[in-house]
Automatic annotation (TrEMBL):
PANTHER family: FAD-DEPENDENT OXIDOREDUCTASE 2 FAD BINDING DOMAIN-CONTAINING PROTEIN, FUMARATE REDUCTASE. Keywords: FAD, Flavoprotein, Oxidoreductase. Residues 9-437 form the FAD-dependent oxidoreductase 2 FAD-binding domain. Its cofactor is FAD. The gene is tcuA. This is FAD-dependent tricarballylate dehydrogenase TcuA.
């Protein structure tokens, strides 16, 4: 049993990667730590359960990474995907710190493995967790508990007492025991974004949000974020920006995870409900572009689209939970998708006629392109002509939102007057908007969580001692 009458040095709200990195870091610095996870134990960990890898800078190849990935290359990649909408000081700090995270995370019991075939060409830039996100999460929990971190599940925080930028206590509600006040010298907020709060999403997206699918936990409803912003913490990030990918339209409303994501876009074409293409499927290397497709599909009629390809490419990407829909002819496929057959045939015929000769190589920006159609497909363009013809229906799959709390390099929250909070820190999705103004690069969410989680825990422990 956790003694809630005592005063803890550090209170961590949240139960995913960022929260656990903060808890472990604080505990290793000598602080007493309580973690409040709002979900039941089985669903602990937020979106960390669904992850596979982390993007970290490194100067040389390792046993699990095929080559160097310098800080400057990481920065250029981040600059590209965000269109410059990032806090450069915080972003460069995160990238520099990520080099040490590769080893630090192993010291906390996490294990790496080489990347699998078909995993977005990430063998050089991203480290993959042995056993996936859940195994990584279990390792962090095991280490935290061995160090003496207290953890409570089904622990819903319903209020925060904050005065003049100083955290005093949290009001906790549990299924058994009712409401309790929890006191701590410092607070680390690591409770995720508001992606599972459809009503909040609709404030910015309108009725279209009803057609969004939530890739991760149904527990990330943004309650802690809303409380902090209401109590004087400065916000950062665009509320309409998020990490959103194209996922299978047959996926569940919540918690479908990574096995519902489609990485087949570059191997075919994407059409909307009118059987019309609407964006360049070969714009750039997939890890730098896969996260734009959620927003692209969100802008289409009824928030639905279809990835169309043929039987020659079915082994070129990771399989997903749902099998592709097949047709012996384009017309038969169109019928199964409830698309206009003549419109789909016209789109594919025009696309095939526009494909120019080239040497296909999905690992580089190759010379396989179209000519004379709009939108163009600038790389990896190949004719769709070998039956059976295949398709995946896709909808926007929201991973996490970018509206969050403003922080400095110590992960300390800034108040609306610009002054640092007395004793409040943030890590993970709840502050990701500092780094991600828009766009996404594979594995960077885990980088943000690990780097700023470690910093937040260390700084919170120091603050508590003082």
């Amino acid at each position: 049993m956790v003694d809630l009458t005592r005063r803890f040095d550090v209170l961590v709200i949240g139960g995913g990667n960022a929260a656990l990195c903060a808890a472990i870091s604080a505990r290793r610095a000598g602080a007493s730590v309580l973690v409040l996870e709002g979900a039941p134990k089985f669903y602990r960990g937020g979106n960390t359960r669904h992850t596979r890898n982390m993007r970290c800078a490194h100067d040389a190849a390792t046993e699990i990474l095929t080559g160097p990935y310098t800080e400057e290359e990481f920065w250029k990649d981040l600059l590209l995907v965000t269109g410059g909408q990032t806090d450069e000081e915080l972003a460069r700090f995160m990238i520099h710190e990520s080099k040490d995270i590769l080893n630090w995370i192993v010291e906390q019991g996490v294990r790496w493995q080489p990347s699998l075939g078909g995993t977005l060409s990430l063998g050089r830039t991203n480290s993959f967790f042995l056993g996936g996100g859940r195994a990584m999460l279990n390792a962090l929990y095991r280490t935290a508990e061995e160090l003496g971190v207290d953890v409570l599940y089904n622990a819903e925080v319903i209020d925060l007492k904050i005065e003049d930028g100083m955290f005093l206590s949290a009001q906790l509600k549990q299924p058994v025991g009712g409401k309790t006040e929890v006191r701590a010298s410092t607070l680390v907020a690591a409770a995720g974004g508001f992606e599972a709060n459809i009503e909040w999403l609709k404030e910015y997206w309108g009725e279209a949000a009803d057609n969004f699918l939530i890739r991760g936990t149904p527990y990330n409803r943004g309650a802690i974020l809303k409380m902090l912003l209401a109590k004087g913490v400065q916000e950062t990030g665009d509320p309409t920006q998020c990490h959103a990918v194209a996922i299978d339209a047959r996926a569940p409303k919540f918690d479908g995870g990574i096995i519902t994501r489609h990485d087949s876009v570059v191997f075919g074409i994407v059409v909307n409900k009118h059987a019309e293409r609407f964006y360049d499927e070969g714009e750039d290397i997939w890890p730098k572009r896969y996260a734009i497709w959620g927003r692209l599909v969100a802008a289409q009629p009824d928030q639905i689209a279809y990835i169309i390809f043929d039987s020659t490419v079915v082994t070129s990407f990771m399989p997903t939970l749902f099998p592709p829909i097949a047709g012996a002819t384009i017309a038969e496929l169109a019928g199964k998708l409830e698309l206009d057959a003549s419109a789909l045939e016209k789109t594919i015929t025009e696309f095939n006629a526009a494909v120019q000769p080239g040497t296909f190589d999905h690992t580089i920006l190759d010379d396989c392109a179209t000519q004379g159609i709009a939108p163009a497909k600038t790389h990896w363009a190949r004719r769709i002509e070998t039956a059976p013809y295949l398709a995946y229906p896709v909808r926007p799959g929201i991973t996490f939102t970018y509206l969050g709390t403003r922080v400095n390099k110590q992960s300390r929250m800034l108040m609306k007057d610009g002054k640092p909070s007395a004793n409040m820190f943030a890590a993970g999705e709840i502050m990701a908007g500092n780094v991600l103004g828009k766009g996404y690069a594979a594995g960077i969410g885990m980088t943000i969580g690990s780097v700023f989680g470690r910093v937040a825990g260390r700084e919170a422990a120091k603050n508590a001692r003082n």
